[in-house]
Amino acid sequence: MKLHAIRNSQRGFTLVEVLVALVIVAIILLGNMAALSLSYRRNLQNIFRDEAVKVAQEAMEAYRDSASCPSSPVTRQIRNYQQQFQVACDLTSRMDGKITQLTVTVTWEYPEGQSHSIRMVSYVEVE
Fold first, then answer.
1. CATH class of the 12-125 domain in this structure
2. What are the tens digits of pLDDT across the range 14-43?
């Protein structure tokens, strides 16, 4: 029986080379997961803020129609979250009592516990 010598170019990868490649791939995947997680959180925060703007607009329309601020809190389903928005209305008379400034403040908490709010101001003519 003849034994053939294995050439260096046919030996394949060593265990050290495979481990180094796995470490590099793991680092890249962890970086991608962190970026995806941050992207998901920012997207969810934007959705909450958009919904808060809708709640404020609805409160202004409700005041225009019935001269009263809607009851607080307002609950909305956003993705897998039941989100509560606190609504507060503030009226200030302007210009000899004919025009009233309506300020609507909507406050909410993100799932991480951060509290945020938006404020919208409109002027309403009182008849």
1. alpha beta
2. 889 999 999 999 999 999 999 999 999 899
Which tens digits make up the pLDDT trace of 4-13? Answer: 655 555 667 7
Torsion angle (degrees, nearest 10) of CA 94, 98, 99, 105: 80
Within the chain, residue ranges assigned H as helices are: 15-66
Is pLDDT of 112 > 90?
Answer: no
What's the confidence (pLDDT) of residue 6?
57
Burial profile 31-63: b = 16 or more Cβ within 10 angstroms, e = fewer? eeeeeeeeeeeeebeeebeebbeebbeebbebb
Q: How many CB atoms lie within 10 A of CB 9?
A: 6
Domain ranges for the chain: 12-125
Q: DSSP character for 97?
A: T
